[in-house]
């Protein structure tokens, strides 16, 4: 299967799931936590059916499905988060996303991140030109539980804090030039960052664990606790500051 066809499929599935979620959000049949729960289920059902039809020989790891370890023996694994930012979606905000990624031999090769509330999809096959950083850097943090490491690095760099919702929305804010650093250390899973990592890598950004090591996917345990996305020129400084803080 060609990368172009896989990229087109990832984008189409992400955008279609996004439209379904928007219609569900507009229906008025659910609100709050009930809306988020319904969104998770409906989007996941569509994505699983679409992948089963279009890529029946590939494995799938989804947040909303049981962890089938048979996937670990396969080279091609779709890693999906049907609704990243369930709370934000249920609250009627725009900072939520749909993640569709294809990991090949553990590498985040193909990715599409739909931001339906913004009518925007970013994908690895159409990398964007990341604008240069301003004089004062902007650090993305969780709007509800900002990580202490991110706060410490922001203080060390005199960076402005930018609260935002889902992981996908934050990662894409760096790709779009709305922020400069996404540093997460509070615990994530592979589906939280595989698609964002693929898109950010295609855009030429630095993407790694917070110790600088490469991200690895399709592991038996999908827990992937930390992530750094930023421009390459500042990556070394951030990783060095984190290492110093860890050694202190």
TrEMBL record:
Annotated Pfam families: Inositol_P (PF00459)
Organism: Sphingomonas immobilis
Enzyme class: hydrolase
UniProt keyword terms in alphabetical order: Hydrolase
GO molecular function terms noted in the UniProt entry: 3'(2'),5'-bisphosphate nucleotidase activity
Enzyme Commission designation: 3.1.3.7
Annotated protein name in UniProt: 3'(2'),5'-bisphosphate nucleotidase CysQ
Keyword Hydrolase assigned: yes
